Amino acid sequence: MKIEFGRLDGLDGGRTGRQKETGPASKEALRLRLYLALMIVDSLALIFGFAAGNLVRFGTPVVSQGFNMCLMLLPIYLGTAINSRAYGMHVLTSSRLGMYRALTSLLFAVAAVTFLAFYLRSGVEMSRIVLGAGAIFTALLMVIGRKLMAAASDRLCGGSPLSEVVIKDGRDCEVAPGAYLVEARAMNLRPDIADPMMLDRMGRLLKNADRVVVACAPEQRTRWALALKGANITGELIVAEVDELGAIGTGRYVGQSTMLVSAGPLGLRDRIIKRALDLSVAVPALILLSPLFLIIAAAIRYSSPGPVFFVQERLGRGNRLFKIYKFRSMRADRLDDAGHQSTLRDDDRVTPVGKLIRKTSLDELPQILNVIRGEMSLVGPRPHALGSTAGNALFWEVDSRYWLRHASKPGLTGLAQVRGFRGATHCRSDLTNRLQADLEYMSGWTVWRDISIIVATFKVLVHRNAF
User: Fold this and answer.
1) What pLDDT score does 359 carry?
2) Which of 101, 173, 215, 381 is the most exposed place for a label (fewest CB within 10 A)?
3) Could you tell me the sign of the dihedral formed by the alpha carbons of 335, 339, 341, 345, in that order?
4) How far apart (Å, rounded) are the C-alpha atoms in residues 216 and 171?
5) CA distance 432 to 436
6) How far is 375 from 380, CA to CA, in rounded Å?
């Protein structure tokens, strides 16, 4: 881990010494260059995208129609993209967010040009094929360009586009690579708001910082909070109690600050949208996959005696139990109804057909019925059996935040699954990784996130941890 330290400069010929308050280097100019590079990448995507549209329609990329469309689209797109913050801090840390904002800006620009050309009967000659193909090629080039820029940004910024300072005042903490570390006691730095000279030193030290994180004793937090409030900087304090309480936000009650530790269900509008998405996918899927259901059912009955379905109680929304449906993949006389034993690689309980359907995740298909019944959603935290363990401890014994995940309907797939956190939970970190992803999903739900997770799921249906 690369951590920068302030240099030790000697004073009075080396007889005394102190750590010089050099502070971190500014990354503002670098960010501006990256924003400009993103604008150039997007502009080139438009130019080459509509050149490709010309090629599809006319057989040559150099035709005035595509060029004129590009000239109309470019200023509208750039204006919309700037307004929607497609060139901002957050898109440097999240390539997906950048792609989303860029593509929605492109869609708006195409719609605006279409309106101007057809509704207002503009005199500019336009080909629908050039416009459609050009927009598609542009979108593809933007996605590729943004992915490449994200990799370049990560390399140039040293992992973060922010200039970060971590101040340790008698407390230890983890420090991210590239952060500028300040040992407060070694530099005789104190959050003393009654000492203007001390505040001046702190201000000079933090001059180029974008974010400051302070690890200090509880009795020092108020002092540091006051000192940082006037430093014109994003300041944060590490508070271990927040992790212990599982805080998810802050609020106000009768003039007093409160710590939000739990949240209710999605609002009515969001619940309707999520349920509509579930039914619009699950009902057609059940109809289309019914022949596959019959084939798998016949194969299970032929390979080993016993029922076709494995029905097990799982924890669902509101910590309520429900019966989940799966295709039976184990021998009927060796089923683990409570889920005490995770399935192992080359597990002798699994039938030959069971190995195939588990490897391809086909054993999970009957849960479409749970989605239609309203017990599950397409996307959400995966439901667990009561006896599930990680490192010989029950899931809720490993991390008390485990119960937070049940504020949402369980899902056929989830953020944890598309990130590769699936299979047996041999150690505590196996659960922790999944739990972090589940809580992240629940804290920022959007229908577009659900759709992106559904699409990403197809990439991990066959997985090395599926056995």
Assistant:
1) 83
2) 173
3) positive
4) 5
5) 6
6) 11
